[in-house]
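Hey, quick one: can you model this chain's 3D structure?
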Amino acid sequence: TPAVGWQPEGGASLDFRGNTNYDTSTGAVQSWVMNKPAGVVDGDFLLMFIVQNNPLAFSSIPSGWTLIQDSRSDHGGANAITYYKIASSEPASYTWDYGTGNAERTAACLVALTGGTYDEIGQTEDGSGNETCVAPSVTVDSAGSVLIAANGQKDNDYSTLPSGWTEVMNVTAKCNLWLGYKTDVAAGASGSVTWVMTGAKKNDSIQVAIGP
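Sure thing. Here's the predicted structure for all 212 residues.
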């Protein structure tokens, strides 16, 4: 089992380990449980992307997660929150709780990579609403990196999805979340990522670079 903080030797490419999805978009809940992706070992890179139908704070979150993006204080409507951590003696699942008397529709995707280091996040927080959603380009530091792209919004379907990405979640039911990834990415500018919706809604678009 790799030690905590393990990365592939010699700048080797990272691999996609797996993902788990959770969706309460058809009804609000106080707390929800995200299962750990299968096969996770110590040193894996974990990325948690959460979309809420409306902004609501957590009363408690699982330990060890680092917040890298949060639009809840910036605008109403669908809001994205992004965390990461390096796996270390991970539990079988993670409980996220809004607290007694609070409930919200939520969609989430937990991605596991075979090691890696968080490099950069690019985000567009659209609090006024637009049919076209764009996650800005990020700088990929090293060849063999992984890119994660995600979009969160409410109520609308997608009419156009990004091409060239491996999709692992696409839920469109009140609280919408699309997430995909690319592996073996070359160093340099990643380029932007674009989604088009069937109508204008508040939304968040995210792109994350994880390096070997």
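One thing worth noting: Residues 1-11 have pLDDT under 50 and may be disordered.
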